[in-house]
Amino acid sequence: SDIGSQRDRVVTEEEWLQKWEMGNIGFHKDQGHPLFQKYLDVLLNGRSGLRIFFPLCGKAVEMKWLADMGHSVVGVEVSEQALKEFFADHSLPYCEQPVPEISGAKKLQSTSGNISLYCCSIYDLSSSILGKFDGVWDRGALVAVNPRDRQRYVSLMITLMEKNSSYLLVTVSYDPNKHKGPPFYVPESEIKSLFG
Ligand code: SAH
């Protein structure tokens, strides 16, 4: 599995913000991701009242679904527009507050309290700010991370996981020499070495 042509590619935060501004968000799925339905039981494993993390969340509708099932959801996203669209799309009232530990960051929280979305880079966060999670939905997240930042991203994710947590990861399989990404191609062998 040769990812040589992608290894040095970088998508900047500015480019992500521009995608949201231009409405260039082909990655967003209004109906949610089919694999979410398929593996939801694996994520929940019969448990209720879980804390579920959505790294690089965009305006993923699965956040609303899990909150409606009684779980609490935490997401992180650099685009404030994405987060505002999330609350607007679902007609959810929310309030905004600064995050004292991170200058310039904001937390947008549903008035009902069970959806908290951080507007900042995921690399600004830590388990001392977020706590730990029982489950992670990683779709369009690891595969959107710049290849050079993968180790850092995964190390952070591991520190955010509670002992008996489940991590659902969606990747995309394709020929990395024919498409520059994102999503980037993350070979299974690399997933194994990253997560150990
Ligand atoms: N998981 C979502 C969105 C996937 S696209 C979904 O399933 O629809 C990747 C998202 O990550 C984009 O919305 C982009 O703005 C955001 N993003 C990119 N780099 C980020 C970073 N360092 N920290 C937080 N969000 C980031």
Automatic annotation (TrEMBL):
Superkingdom of the source species: Eukaryota
Principal location listed in the UniProt entry: cytoplasm
Entry-linked Gene3D superfamilies: Vaccinia Virus protein VP39
MF GO annotations: thiopurine S-methyltransferase activity
Binding, S-adenosyl-L-methionine: 16-27, 56, 77, 121-122, 139
GO BP: methylation
Listed EC numbers: 2.1.1.67
Catalytic activity as recorded in UniProt: S-adenosyl-L-methionine + a thiopurine = S-adenosyl-L-homocysteine + a thiopurine S-methylether
Alphabetic keyword roster: Cytoplasm, Methyltransferase, S-adenosyl-L-methionine, Transferase
Compartment(s): Cytoplasm
Similarity comment: family membership: Belongs to the class I-like SAM-binding methyltransferase superfamily. TPMT family.
Name this protein carries in UniProt: thiopurine S-methyltransferase
Lineage: Eukaryota, Metazoa, Chordata, Craniata, Vertebrata
